[in-house]
Amino acid sequence: MTETPASSNSRPLQRFPVVVVGAGPAGLTVGCVLRAAGVDCLVLETGTRESVEQRPRAGVIEEPVVRGLERRGLAGNLLERARRDTACEFRFDGERHPFGYHELTGGHHWVYPQQFLVTDLVREYADVRGGAVRFGVRDVRVHDLDRDRPSVSYLCPESGHRKVVGCDFVAGCDGARGVTRVAVAGRARVARHDYGIGWLALLAQAPPSADRVLFGCHPDGFAGQMPRSPEMTRYYLQCPPGDDPESWPHERVWAELHRRLAAAGAEPLTEGALIEKRVLDMHDYVTEPMAFGRLYLAGDAAHLVAPIAAKGLNLALHDAFALGDALVERLLRGDEAGLAGYSESRLRQVWDYQEFSQWLSELYHGGATGDPFRAGTALARLRRLFSSPATAAAFAERYLGTAARY
């Protein structure tokens, strides 16, 4: 919640042009962009550095995002270590249907686990570019966002005392449950969509059974395989929303994966220990606008897109590029155009990706709804994807994130 410091003891003891709340991909990228331009900033993060660097999340990164990281000097390890995916495979009607999107567009995906990217960004921001960061802070609050001199306060983990930091701008990059999203709860319009399904997200200590992403569109529910490394594989299983991960023991998980990803001529899955199990309730939201006074939201603090289309990390980084560049222009050159247009320009892409996620969800899940009409239209979409070159090309561009410029 937005608050005003209550006493003279709360006056800012430090000052930075920008305070970034949240040390995820968006916040760290904003910080790196600012530091590269010589702008001081402070990043505040409630987690420890170790927890931030080890948190497994997304892993599919679009080529335009990689090029954006590369232009900003942030893609060195990624370009050396990431694998390139040039095709995926749909499995339905008991058959394999390879989809070579590189052949259609010349583009590809990069697979680089989010924790590796975050580790790179932390090192670049804090160790290489000398950016200020405070890990392990508590009870972060934002103040006076509609004034020229906002501030952010937090409880110091060492002393337990509240510290107040003055700034010109606040970058809210602290995720769906973060304080900056809460701070605008009474002012923002939040559009939300619930899919009515869950995904059991699994991380298996096992090599992928195929060298590509697999999408199993099965009458009993969707299943997906996403290779992460030669030794680790991400799997997803459609399940009821709110399902208990503990109701999915090792044997049940692998039995369902084998069944839903089965196809004629396919290699059997290689089983391994399940080192992560959690249920994701599939939903989206969009916060409008993404700017409130001196606060600018980025990433999940502004919008959430379900992992159906692997767009969340990519949207967060696009936000960070736009916000970092706009802050540099305003602080170094007095040009306010980028900040003034930030929310409107970013929301165009956000809504485009939300629409694609909805479309793809029906492709994945329509056959498992129990509704013969939805099952029939989902199958029609799948068949058209492999019978119409125009449909295939349009899908490939949207899947790769190269269909439009924003």
TrEMBL record:
The keyword Flavoprotein applies. InterPro entries: FAD-bd, FAD/NAD-bd_sf, RIFMO-like. Gene3D superfamilies: D-Amino Acid Oxidase, subunit A, domain 2, FAD/NAD(P)-binding domain. Its EC number is 1.14.13.2. It is an enzyme of class 1 (oxidoreductase). It comes from the Bacteria. One of its GO terms (molecular function) is 4-hydroxybenzoate 3-monooxygenase activity. Residues 16-356 form the FAD-binding domain. Keywords: FAD, Flavoprotein, Oxidoreductase. The keyword Oxidoreductase applies. PANTHER family: P-HYDROXYBENZOATE HYDROXYLASE (PTHR43004:SF3), TRK SYSTEM POTASSIUM UPTAKE PROTEIN (PTHR43004). This is 4-hydroxybenzoate 3-monooxygenase.
